[in-house]
């Protein structure tokens, strides 16, 4: 793995961590170290010396000497050999910010004998099963690291083997450093409340009932001096107060949370100071990512880590500090919270919101909150001092009815939902997607108690199934793609109940324009074409001008599949004989070309993408020498939710007739599974098969379903197909490329020209055309316009109703029993 990732995540002018390098130790014995690390989550970093670096795993629960324990170990980036001696404080705001002690250290060797210990360990690491002896001050005896089977390639298990050192004693209770004797929270200066002049703030002896300050939804992130930018947590907003031994924890709707989440109430009781806090109750996974569905189910199934993220303080030891500037309130808040507590300080960054929003979006989190650093706390006020920016559209709605279940669904079908507008309860849509069976059962139990004979909506909707009307008392949240012109949510998906909200307080959230919309403010395109007579396709002497004429002719057909999608360009300014280069990051676009900044994890920065949809943008790409146009599977409105998934039939040393055979096999499998699918030629040697998703699933879900489909096709056509990515492992076979469904992958658009001698076009097909007589050269820039006049746009269904993956999987599961 090397140290590239380690270097890229750290600023060595700010962190005391060693920079180090890949180097072999002079010792004949290999080193190991376990560091207790109190960052956002307390965990243990388990490191083994191998090949001049420390192979590293983060172990949330720490090592165990009990052979019956199976502790998750998440493999992280390699660390330098010098890191084994690091103990200290990583500054907040830096990667892994927090305290680090050397919890244990020593030497180790492989369990299995061999002429070279490192060669043995290297082989076992590659195989995903390491067995070794530790000789430490706390950890001794035989251990194993075993890679888990599943979608996460970084997930391992750390296991103690049964031997004379094994014990049921909790070894992590020995919590002193073997280097300094300190505990992890003893490092650094002792934590005391910040010194502030509080006498200027009003004295109030006891807490009061707080109506939380609210945020205004705006349409885009921004950078601005004097502003703080925070994570928008996906949980329940909650006010927490402590006065002597009296504890209160309640929602915006004044619901009592103290009995629902007792660990938070108990943590409040342990605070040293009397306070009123504002924050969010969340449940996170081991990596700190919040999961709203786990929070909803926490009382019945307490999985994950329950946390109260405190982001403001209103009252402190008898002083009302609501008029204190926010930046000062946060300093006070941070100073009084204990290090080891489920009440956590919600940190922020100053001035730079765009980069943070890009990172939040890249991790598919809910959004960002922007606050003026000098803002006072104004209860029940929704103004311009606190703003929120969401990564995708979500809306709280009130349930007014539900339909009878149909097909494979249980308990109930779709929820009919509405909003209060000017005192009227207005229908805004219905959805049955995104609701697990257990949640459907609980919803039915709750809603059946609220049934009424008549519709609660001002104008009664007409669902396509028998309906049960209910009193509009239950609030839920739905994500969706856009608002329609008649005020309905398009493609809504149930996200969860909002027991913290009152129905009459739910309003239609419309994003306020932070600044004029870029597209409207764009200057008029000034596109100049050059070298129109340059030959791009020597065989037929087709020129750049011919390409421009073609794209103008097919614009009504190709532009809908480029609209709002980031584009990668294959630029070949000297024609098809030019090897060319792919370009994603377009740093110097004219200001009239639509664009989007999207965070790239591999580059650790935002990339500036061209965004398709306008003819001028398409022609500008051609002017740059782009023959083919490659859009994302998703649009900028929901980059994490693709509109389709694709199986790319990529041949290696086989005939196009073989590709047709596999395409027809794919159609057969899809028909059996009840999956709508559509084919187009790649324009070269393959065929692309698309399945509509209607932006209902994540890239990961799409990829996993495509993988399942590819495995079934491979099972039926093992001699012709392969799921091996490396060409040398799939010679004379067709690669069933399901990895094209990862976020950021691009593929030639329908009706895009391809750089082939005949100027072939990636062409949507009717399945009746997919026969052994089909040739990829059948469709070119010369005959495509006439074909379109005859058959129209065969690709339109790909953007229509998406498949129901959960329903398909349920059907497959039943068939396999």
Structure report:
The protein has 817 residues and is α+β, with helices and mostly antiparallel strands. The chain has four domains: 4-186, no CATH class; 214-390, D-amino Acid Aminotransferase, Chain A, domain 1 (2-Layer Sandwich); 396-505, Nucleic acid-binding proteins (OB fold (Dihydrolipoamide Acetyltransferase, E2P)), CATH 2.40.50.140; 516-817, DNA primase, PRIM domain, CATH 3.90.920.10. The chain has 14 helices and 41 strands. The chain has an eight-stranded antiparallel barrel with strand order 1-2-3-4-9-8-7-6. Strands 12, 13, 14, 15, 16 and 17 form a six-stranded mixed β-sheet that branches. Strands 21, 22, 23, 24, 25 and 28 form a six-stranded antiparallel β-sheet that branches. Helix 9 (544-558) packs antiparallel against helix 10 and helix 11 packs across helix 12. The chain is globular and about 85 Å long.
């Amino acid at each position: 793995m090397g140290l590239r990732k380690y270097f890229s995540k750290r600023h060595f002018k700010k962190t005391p961590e060693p920079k180090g390098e890949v180097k072999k130790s002079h010792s004949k014995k290999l080193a190991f170290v376990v560091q207790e690390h109190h960052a956002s989550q307390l965990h243990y970093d388990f490191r083994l010396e191998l090949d001049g670096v420390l192979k590293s795993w983060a172990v949330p629960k720490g090592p165990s000497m009990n052979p019956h324990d199976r502790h998750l170990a998440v493999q992280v980036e390699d660390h330098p050999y010098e890191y084994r001696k690091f103990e200290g404080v990583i500054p907040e705001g830096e990667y892994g910010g927090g305290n680090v002690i050397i919890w244990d250290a020593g030497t180790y060797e492989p369990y299995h004998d061999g002429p070279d210990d490192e060669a043995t360990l290297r082989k076992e690491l590659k195989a995903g099963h390491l067995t070794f002896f530790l000789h430490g001050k706390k950890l001794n005896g035989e251990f194993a690291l075993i890679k888990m089977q599943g979608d996460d390639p970084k997930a391992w298990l750390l296991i103690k083997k049964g031997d004379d050192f094994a014990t049921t004693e909790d070894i992590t209770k020995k919590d002193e450093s073997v280097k300094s004797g300190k505990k992890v929270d003893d490092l650094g200066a002792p934590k005391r409340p910040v010194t502030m002049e509080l006498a200027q703030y009003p004295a109030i002896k006891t807490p009061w009932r707080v109506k939380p300050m609210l945020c205004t939804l705006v349409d885009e992130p921004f950078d601005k001096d004097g502003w703080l930018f925070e994570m928008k947590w996906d949980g329940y907003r909650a006010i927490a107060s402590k006065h002597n031994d009296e504890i209160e924890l309640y929602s915006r709707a004044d619901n009592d949370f103290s009995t629902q989440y007792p660990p938070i109430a108990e943590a409040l009781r342990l605070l040293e100071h009397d306070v009123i806090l504002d924050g969010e109750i969340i449940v996170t996974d081991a990596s700190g990512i919040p999961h709203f569905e786990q929070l909803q189910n926490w009382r019945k199934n307490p999985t994950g880590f329950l946390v109260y993220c405190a982001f403001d303080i209103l009252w402190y030891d008898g002083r009302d500090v609501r008029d204190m500037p926010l930046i000062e309130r946060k300093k006070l808040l941070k100073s009084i919270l204990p290090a080891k507590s489920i009440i956590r300080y919600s940190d922020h960054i100053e001035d730079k919101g765009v980069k943070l929003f890009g990172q939040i979006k890249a991790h598919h989190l809910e959004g960002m909150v922007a606050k003026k650093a000098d803002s006072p706390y104004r209860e029940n006020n929704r103004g311009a001092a606190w703003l929120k920016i969401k990564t995708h559209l979500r809306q709280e709605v009130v349930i007014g009815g539900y339909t009878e279940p149909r097909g494979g669904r249980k308990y109930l079908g779709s929820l009919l939902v509405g909003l209060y507008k000017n005192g009227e309860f207005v229908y805004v849509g219905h959805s049955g997607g995104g609701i697990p069976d257990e949640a459907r059962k609980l919803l039915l139990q709750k809603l059946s108690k609220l049934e009424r004979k008549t519709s609660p909506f001002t104008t009664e909707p007409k669902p396509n199934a028998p309906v049960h009307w209910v009193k509009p008392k239950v609030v839920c949240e739905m994500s969706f793609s856009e608002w329609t012109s008649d005020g309905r949510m398009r493609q809504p998906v149930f996200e969860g109940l909002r027991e913290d909200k009152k129905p009459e307080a739910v309003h239609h959230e419309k994003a306020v324009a932070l600044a004029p919309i870029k597209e409207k403010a764009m200057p008029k395109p000034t596109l100049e074409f050059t070298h129109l007579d340059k030959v791009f396709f020597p065989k037929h002497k087709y020129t750049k001008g011919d390409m421009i004429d073609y794209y103008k002719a097919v614009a009504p057909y190709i532009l809908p599949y480029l609209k709002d999608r980031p584009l990668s360009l294959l630029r070949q300014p000297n024609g098809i004989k030019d090897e060319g280069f792919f370009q994603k990051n377009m740093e110097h676009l004219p200001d009239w070309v639509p664009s989007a900044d999207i965070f790239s994890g591999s580059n650790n920065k935002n990339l500036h993408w061209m965004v398709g949809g306008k003819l001028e943008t398409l022609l500008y790409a051609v002017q740059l020498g782009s023959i083919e146009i490659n859009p994302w599977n998703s649009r900028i409105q929901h980059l994490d939710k693709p509109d389709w998934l694709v199986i790319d039939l990529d041949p290696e040393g086989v005939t196009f007739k073989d590709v047709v055979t596999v395409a027809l096999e794919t159609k057969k499998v899809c028909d059996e599974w009840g999956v709508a699918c559509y084919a187009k030629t790649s324009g070269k040697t393959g065929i692309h098969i698309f399945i509509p998703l209607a932006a209902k699933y994540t890239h990961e879900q799409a990829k996993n379903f495509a993988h399942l489909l590819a495995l079934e096709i491979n099972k039926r056509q093992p001699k012709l197909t392969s799921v091996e990515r490396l060409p040398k492992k799939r010679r004379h076979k067709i690669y069933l490329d399901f990895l094209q469904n990862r976020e950021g992958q691009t593929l030639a658009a329908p009706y895009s020209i391809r750089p082939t001698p005949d100027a072939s076009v990636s062409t949507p097909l009717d399945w009746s055309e997919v026969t052994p007589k089909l040739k990829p050269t059948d469709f070119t820039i010369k005959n495509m316009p006439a074909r379109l006049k005859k058959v129209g746009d065969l690709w339109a269904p790909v953007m229509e109703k998406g498949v129901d993956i959960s329903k398909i999987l349920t059907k497959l599961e039943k068939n396999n029993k």
